[in-house]
Design a protein that fits this description.
- It is a single chain.
- By secondary structure, the chain is an alpha+beta fold.
- The protein contains eleven helices and 26 strands.
- It has four domains: 2-143, Dodecin subunit-like, CATH 3.30.1660.40; 148-322, 2-Layer Sandwich (Double Stranded RNA Binding Domain), CATH 3.30.160.150; 326-412, Alpha-Beta Plaits (2-Layer Sandwich); 425-560, Sandwich (Immunoglobulin-like), CATH 2.60.40.
- The chain has helices at 2-5, 9-32, 54-74, 94-99, 134-143, 186-197, 225-234, 292-325, 339-352, 379-388, 414-419; strands at residues 39-49, 83-85, 88-90, 102-112, 116-126, 148-156, 201-202, 239-249, 259-271, 277-289, 327-334, 356-365, 368-375, 396-401, 405-410, 445-448, 455-465, 468-477, 491-494, 498-502, 507-510, 513-516, 519-522, 528-535, 542-547, 551-557.
- It has a five-stranded mixed beta sheet with strand order 7-6-8-9-10, with helices on both faces. A five-stranded mixed beta sheet has the order 12-13-11-15-14.
- A hairpin with a 5-residue loop joins strand 9 (259-271) and strand 10.
- Helix 3 (54-74) packs antiparallel against helix 8 and helix 6 packs parallel to helix 8 (292-325).
- The protein starts with a helix and ends with a strand.
């Protein structure tokens, strides 16, 4: 009795709370029977700010830990923030949903502090309840930012002579496909339907028709991942699902008017910003019909629905692992004075940024470093931390960001970093990834712009890709060169066309396409990148490249 009398009101509250929870768990166990067999026990940590009564902070910390327990067990990060699910706004009732999945828990550690209250719990979570829960899938999709998905499926049905694909006849430079139907591919239509039904954000290509042109180099069925990513980047996609669907006639029973048809589909899901493969699947199915074209369509449709399930399963499994275990965020940092600056940043990430588990150094050369940060946070959250906290005298500016990448530069050194000239060996293996993306290029040659001497033009890539010569140039502002410093704050940069001169044959080849930042003003820290395509001069080893408005690069070696 004496012990009971000295209990504080706070303690009584927690005893009562635990008793109610224990009764609820007991009732749940009796009621659900074998449902408890499919459970998982996880340990999670929750934190909450102390803004008054510590007991309130403790309760909030426990709720945070319970949400994280559900995340670890089933891959669903639930939060009290406003989320959009099935086109309806859902507020603050998410915890009620996750509470139904947590069957029991106990607090195994408490760390009360002046400003922060932390608890560690051991929770038993029912995974059976979430196995086919579309609501939970919707929460997962919302938590990863509702990424926009673009489908790029090349399809060939029975009776068609070639593969048909929408990016081949897109815009003014598209192919005619004489005698062939160019309606939406059956496989693509089915996949869109399946993904929309599961709450995915799918891009409608008709909504962006005419807003940009597709390079001739990309108007092929066997499009590389980097080519598809370049198209996806221009269409605002975060995920590309690309591949092929083929249908053919199967064996036919003698004397029967009904034919059999077989379809095979191979697909992969790729992140646009960093090229990471989220899923890779293959499926096949059959159909029977009296009409050849209809039978082929039905076989493709059956195979598409089969692979849709596999795709969703692999993509959500990847997201689940990232939400519970962390994801790799790529950081490109320019303008570093040396290794000491890089060590400061690495130590800051490991010791001062919440959620960072590991920092992997991929490269460091000429003041530029590429890091991969294993973090339980998004690139946006990581960028906010880097931009808002001091790093021992280093002030970092974020100059570009995507869902999984960040480009940063030491303040005051961005223009200097952009104009530096690393060797060609530092160029990425797939330079086209840099068009609009997070990677920087090496520099083969550089010159002052013919139109504006304050702009340095860098030749980053000259490479033959099939029948196309692909040239990438960038422009950076380097300040006034003919007058006092500070009298001019930006330079002029504009590209409209170009030509390539083959020194061996003296034949000139005019440009066929210009993509990227074609104009206009380039200021301190800016980098304008442009990709220009030409017909590839047969067998040429050395050429001159003239770019309208910029000037001419002489004695340029071609990489085959």
């Amino acid at each position: 009795m004496n012990n009971l009398m000295v209990l504080s009101r706070q303690s009584i509250f927690h005893v009562f709370h635990a008793g109610v929870l224990a009764f609820a768990c007991l009732f749940s166990a009796v009621w659900s029977g074998q449902a408890l067999a499919q459970t998982q026990t996880v340990v999670s940590e929750g934190m909450a700010g102390v803004q008054g009564e510590p007991a309130i902070a403790r309760d909030n910390a426990i709720q945070d830990a319970l949400r994280k327990a559900v995340e670890q067990a089933v891959g669903t990060m639930v939060s009290s923030e406003t989320l959009v699910e099935n086109f309806q706004v859902v507020r603050d009732n998410i915890y009620n949903k996750s509470q139904g999945y947590v069957k029991e828990y106990k607090v195994v550690k408490e760390s009360p502090g002046k400003d922060l209250y932390a608890v560690t719990i051991s929770a038993t979570v029912s995974t059976e309840n979430l196995k086919n829960d579309l609501g939970a899938l919707g929460l997962l999709i919302a938590r990863v930012g509702k990424p926009r998905t673009l489908f790029m499926i090349a399809e060939q049905n029975v009776g068609q002579e070639i593969l048909l694909y929408w990016w081949g006849y897109w815009g003014k430079g598209g192919a005619a496909f004489a005698g062939q139907s160019v309606e939406m591919a059956v496989s693509e239509t089915v996949l869109k339907e399946e993904f929309l039904n599961r709450g995915f954000n799918v891009i409608d290509i008709s909504a962006v028709t005419g807003k940009f042109e597709i390079s001739n180099a990309y108007r092929i069925a066997d499009l590389t991942d980097t080519g598809a990513r370049d198209i996806g980047r221009k269409m605002g996609a975060e995920i590309i699902i690309k591949g092929k669907a083929l249908a053919k006639e199967g064996p036919r029973t003698a004397g029967s008017s009904v034919g059999s048809y077989l379809a095979d589909i191979t697909l992969s899901a790729v992140r646009v910003d960093n090229g990471q493969v989220l899923a890779s699947v293959r499926g096949n199915a059959a159909a029977r019909h009296i009409a050849q074209h209809v039978g082929g369509n039905q076989a493709i449709e059956n195979a598409a629905r089969q692979v849709a399930d596999k795709l969703v399963e692999q993509i959500t499994a990847k997201w689940t692992a990232e939400m519970s275990g962390g994801q790799l965020i790529q950081l490109t940092i320019r303008g570093l004075s040396g290794m000491k600056d890089l060590i400061k940043i690495k130590e800051f990430l490991k010791g001062k940024v919440r959620g960072v588990q590991n920092v992997i150094q991929r490269s460091f050369e000429r003041g530029e470093a590429v890091l991969e940060v294993d973090a339980k946070s998004s690139a946006q959250q990581l960028g906010d931390e880097l931009a808002s906290k001091p790093i021992q005298g280093l002030d970092l500016d974020i100059i570009a960001a995507t869902g999984n990448t960040l480009e940063l530069c030491v303040a005051g050194k961005c223009a200097e970093a952009a104009a530096s000239a690393p060797t060609a060996s530092s160029m990425p293996a797939s330079p086209e990834e840099g068009m609009g993306g997070a990677k920087t290029y090496g520099v083969l040659k550089s010159m002052r712009s013919a139109r504006d001497k304050d702009v340095v033009v860098q030749l980053n890539e000259v490479k033959v890709r099939g029948s196309v010569l692909q040239v990438v140039v960038s422009g950076v502002y380097q300040g006034k060169v003919e007058a006092a410093a500070g009298t001019k704050q930006s330079g002029h940069f504009a590209v409209s066309s170009g030509s390539v001169l083959d020194y061996n044959t003296n034949k000139k080849y005019e440009s066929t396409g210009v993509d990227g930042d074609t104009c206009c003003s380039v200021g301190p820290g800016d980098i304008k990148r442009v990709q220009i395509t030409f017909p590839a001069p047969p067998g040429a080893k050395k050429v001159g490249i003239s770019i309208g408005g910029l000037g001419t690069f002489d004695e340029v070696m071609i990489t085959q």
